């Protein structure tokens, strides 16, 4: 594969992902195979190291490869080829299908697809490379580049009582790695976690990987918990961790009132429960000065985590966390994991964060998301034919839709695959298989495609599935 082939279809990381997938399928499956390093692969394919990192992260999420500290990435050994080993989960099928060429992914939750900062980021990187061709700093900083850690600490500091220092910030290769190390450092593996439901699929997957017992507390249509139900769970179960969305909930798009968040934080503090605040979408809340959980949480039981790619794009795949306590345990695990992240790329992200361009970009992207949301809402009202219950989200990049008749969205998903359309059925956002009549429909998609036609196909698939269900019901 050369650079020209790499750039022909979609984002660069997608071509790298397909290259690696072909490589893995062709390799012997009965023994582990060491994969090329990030830098080797980037040079071989004439792409950026960040693109290779993002592709490896996708494969790691799917369980196809695993990382070994200081050694790199390896395939997973099995007695039979991966595709024949077991039937893929619905989640794996959804995301594998969305990455296939020619698919229209109505499930693509990637705000930066509408407006990215990748070109400015790469320009800053080239400028820094010219200015500092030889750096005397260590090649790899185990906790992240100090420039980036300092910028993030300043970015999250909002008062003398809610302040952060660079030593509280840790940067890793991706969201999965950040969550994995956090759970281990805080001795939360195998414990009980409470999550909002529907819940971010990546969070659910990592909690399952850590062998945690997951208790889901459903969100109502207005984005609020049944507070008494939540109180009962916290009082009666040995909950050690709560994972909650910072501003608008993901993927539901609701916004919880400040008084509810304040009360929830009181209960968590009473029971010494860790709060992991998912801050990945807080910049996309449509309400100005929306309350965050961190405004009310016990600072010694708070961990905030996020990624850069939602705002910047796939050239910034790194994840990061902020945590005031247990920093020694985090440092030890980050040292052992030995992330090899580009120092110059991290410095470029830091420089971008401190520029006026970043603030302007976030404002423009938020306005564009709201505009596309309203456009998608109008299309749903025009073509929905009463099949979908529409709740306008208060932020984020997607609608959380419910069929007005009980329909299994997994079967709707399968019907649409035959038409090369991909949706995200609601049950992938639940450990218990809840939300089977729901789907996440994103408006950060390829708007050059015939979206009205795709929505009509979606509605027909729901109607056909509903008719079939009624015909089979005695």
Gross geometry = globular
* Secondary structure tally: strands: 15
Q: Helical segment tally? A: 17
CATH class of the largest domain: Alpha Beta
Low-confidence stretches: 1-10, 79-87
Distance between the termini: 56 Å
Percent of residues in beta strands?
5-15%
Name the CATH architecture of the largest domain: 3-Layer(aba) Sandwich
Helix content: 40-55%
Protein name: PLP-dependent aminotransferase family protein
Pfam families: Aminotran_1_2, GntR
Domain HTH gntR-type: 10-78
Family: In the C-terminal section; belongs to the class-I pyridoxal-phosphate-dependent aminotransferase family.
Outline the structure in words:
- With 474 residues, the protein is an alpha/beta fold.
- The chain has 3 domains: 12-75, Winged helix-like DNA-binding domain superfamily/Winged helix DNA-binding domain (Arc Repressor Mutant, subunit A, Orthogonal Bundle); 90-109 and 365-471, Aspartate Aminotransferase, domain 1 (Alpha-Beta Complex); 117-354, Aspartate Aminotransferase, domain 2, CATH 3.40.640.
- 43% of the residues lie in helices and 14% in strands.
- It is built from 17 helices and 15 strands.
- It has helices at 3-6, 12-26, 38-45, 49-61, 82-85, 90-98, 118-131, 146-156, 175-185, 201-209, 227-236, 258-270, 327-337, 343-353, 356-383, 409-417, 451-472, and strands at residues 65-68, 72-75, 104-105, 169-172, 192-197, 213-218, 239-245, 274-278, 302-307, 319-323, 388-389, 398-403, 421-422, 424-425, 438-442.
- The chain has a 7-stranded mixed beta sheet, with helices on both faces. It has a 4-stranded antiparallel beta sheet with strand order 11-12-15-14, with helices on one face. A two-stranded antiparallel sheet has the order 1-2.
- Helix 3 (38-45) packs across helix 4 (49-61).
- 44% of the residues are buried.
- Residues 1-10 and 79-87 have low confidence and may be disordered.
């Amino acid at each position: 594969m050369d650079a020209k082939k790499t750039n022909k279809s979609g984002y660069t990381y997608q071509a790298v992902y397909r290259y690696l997938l072909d490589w893995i399928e062709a390799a012997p499956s009965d023994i582990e195979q060491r994969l090329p390093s990030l830098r080797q692969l980037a040079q071989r394919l004439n792409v950026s190291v960040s693109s290779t990192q993002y592709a490896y992260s996708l494969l790691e999420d799917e369980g196809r490869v695993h990382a070994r500290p200081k050694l790199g990435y390896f395939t997973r050994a099995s007695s039979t080829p991966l595709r024949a080993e077991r039937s893929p989960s619905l989640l794996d099928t959804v995301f594998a299908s969305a990455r296939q060429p020619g698919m229209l992914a109505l499930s693509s939750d990637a705000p930066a697809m509408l407006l990215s900062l990748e070109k400015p980021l790469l320009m800053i990187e080239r400028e820094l490379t010219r200015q500092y061709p030889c750096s005397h700093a260590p090649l790899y900083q185990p906790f992240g580049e100090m420039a980036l850690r300092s910028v993030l600490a300043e970015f999250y500091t909002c008062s003398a009582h809610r302040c952060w220092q660079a030593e509280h910030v840790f940067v890793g290769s991706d969201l999965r790695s950040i969550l994995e190390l956090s759970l281990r450092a805080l001795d939360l593996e195998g414990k009980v976690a409470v999550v909002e439901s529907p819940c971010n699929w990546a969070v659910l997957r990592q909690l399952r990987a850590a062998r945690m017992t997951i208790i889901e507390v459903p969100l109502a249509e207005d984005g609020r918990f049944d507070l008494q139900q939540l109180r009962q769970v916290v009082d009666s179960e040995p909950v050690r961790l709560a994972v909650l969305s910072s501003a608008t909930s993901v993927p539901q798009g609701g916004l919880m009132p400040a008084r509810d968040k304040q009360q929830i934080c009181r209960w968590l503090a009473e029971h010494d429960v860790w709060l992991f605040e998912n801050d990945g979408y807080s910049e996309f809340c449509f309400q100005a000065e929306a309350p965050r959980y961190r405004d009310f949480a016990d600072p010694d039981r708070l961990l905030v985590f996020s990624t850069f790619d939602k705002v910047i794009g796939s050239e910034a795949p790194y994840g990061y966390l902020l945590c005031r306590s247990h920093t020694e345990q985090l440092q030890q695990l980050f040292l052992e994991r030995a992330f090899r992240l580009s120092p110059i790329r991290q410095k470029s992200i830091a420089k971008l964060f401190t520029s006026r361009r970043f603030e302007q970009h976030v404002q423009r992207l938020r306005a564009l998301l709201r505009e596309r949301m309203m456009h998608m809402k109008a299309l749903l009202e025009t073509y929905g034919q009463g099949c979908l219950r529409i709740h306008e989200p208060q932020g984020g990049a997607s609608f959380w839709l419910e069929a007005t008749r009980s329909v299994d969205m997994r079967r709707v998903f399968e019907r649409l695959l035959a038409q090369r359309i991909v949706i995200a059925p609601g049950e992938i956002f639940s450990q218990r298989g809840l939300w089977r009549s729901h789907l996440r429909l994103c408006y950060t998609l390829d708007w050059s495609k015939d979206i009205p036609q795709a929505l009509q196909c979606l509605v027909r698939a729901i109607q056909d599935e509903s008719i079939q269900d009624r015909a089979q019901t005695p």
